[in-house]
Design a protein that fits this description.
Shape: globular
Largest sheet: 9 strands, mixed
CATH architecture of the largest domain: Alpha-Beta Barrel
Number of helices: 11
Strand content: 15-25%
Distance between the termini: 33 Å
CATH class of the largest domain: Alpha Beta
Number of strands: 13
Structural class: alpha/beta
Number of domains: 2
Helix content: 25-40%
Order of helices and strands: EEEHEEHEEHHEHEHEHHEHEHHE
Strand order of the largest sheet: 7-1-2-8-9-10-11-12-13
Length: 300
């Protein structure tokens, strides 16, 4: 069976489908959303993150780095990202855990071993396993094998996806997925390209095909102030979903709790300082969808 790259296995998850779930996060994503709360998921390869508050300035990592990618300065530890080969020498030697590897190769059997540990919670709550990312469809063979193993074990499966993948990749696994958590970012193609880096055409085409052949789809919309919370976009989304007879929509309030992750990775967070919408504003968003037969839920 194929090996994949996992960056987190989250136990006791209650926001990624029904019941108590285990969410398996796969690395790699074809989108680059400005508000992405898992920037460590974007690259398919493993990465090293730096926790500045844990660093004691001992310099052990600098001495261990074969590529001379690390330097201790008056401002603290500086990493030249282009020189880093993710050899893990710094993570192995760091005495405080300030250098940490994100992403590790795992076999299907290793992932399933972790999943099976919480079967009692799935059985009692009507939960199961959710595959997320990043974009899990970036590792199609690994995802297919995981889903096959889950179905063989009688586990409920969910896939959290952006829908940005070749249709054959979705078609091959859709009958092994009990629930799709399908993300919609923006209905305007130009704005979608601006804020995510890709067109929404493939995403909308795939959702149309999926809705015609799969009975269980939850639409999830991250509501980003000033980006996709305008009336025109909301109405366009409502009309599109109504035509597909999709009425289960979850509105996800924006939050900026991932800002520190970007700093640890040496990346820039493009929405730094942006404030979340109030509960009243989120409710107003949901009311615009109501005439289309959509009773949107906030959160989850």
């Amino acid at each position: 069976m194929p090996t994949g790259t996992i960056f987190n296995i989250q136990k006791y998850s209650i926001h990624d489908g029904p019941g108590i779930r285990t969410t398996v996060f796969l690395k790699g994503c074809p989108l680059a959303c400005w508000w992405c709360h898992n920037p460590e998921s974007l690259a398919l390869t493993t990465e090293v993150v730096f926790f500045k508050n844990k660093c004691i300035g001992c310099g052990d990592c600098v001495q261990s780095c074969p590529n001379k990618a690390l330097t201790v300065t008056e401002l603290g530890l500086i990493k030249a990202g282009e020189k880093c080969s993710v050899c893990e020498a710094c993570t192995d030697i760091c005495p405080t855990g300030a250098m940490e590897q994100v992403g590790r190769p795992m076999t299907v059997a290793e992932v399933m071993k972790e999943i099976e540990k919480d079967r009692v919670f799935y059985d009692e709550s009507g939960g199961g396993v959710t595959f997320s990312g990043g974009e899990a469809l970036m590792q199609p063979d690994f995802l297919d094998s995981l889903l096959t193993a889950c179905k063989a074990s009688g586990l409920h499966t969910a896939l959290d996806t952006s829908g940005y993948a070749a249709w054959p990749s979705i078609a091959r696994i859709k009958d092994k997925v009990d629930l799709f958590l399908y993300d919609l970012k923006h209905m305007d193609d130009g704005k979608h390209k601006m804020y995510t880096g890709v067109s929404n055409q493939l995403i909308l085409e795939n959702l149309t095909k999926l809705a015609a052949s799969h009975s269980k789809i939850w639409i999830r919309v991250p509501v980003i102030p000033g980006i996709n919370d305008d009336g025109e976009n909301i109405k366009a989304m409502g009309a599109f979903l109504s035509a597909l007879h999709l009425s289960e929509v979850f509105l996800l309030p924006y939050h900026n709790i991932a800002a520190d992750k970007y700093r640890r990775l040496g990346k820039t967070y493009r929405l730094d300082g942006l404030q979340s919408l109030s509960n009243k504003q989120m409710d107003e968003f949901s009311q615009v969808l109501a005439p289309f037969g959509i009773k949107a839920k906030i959160g989850g």
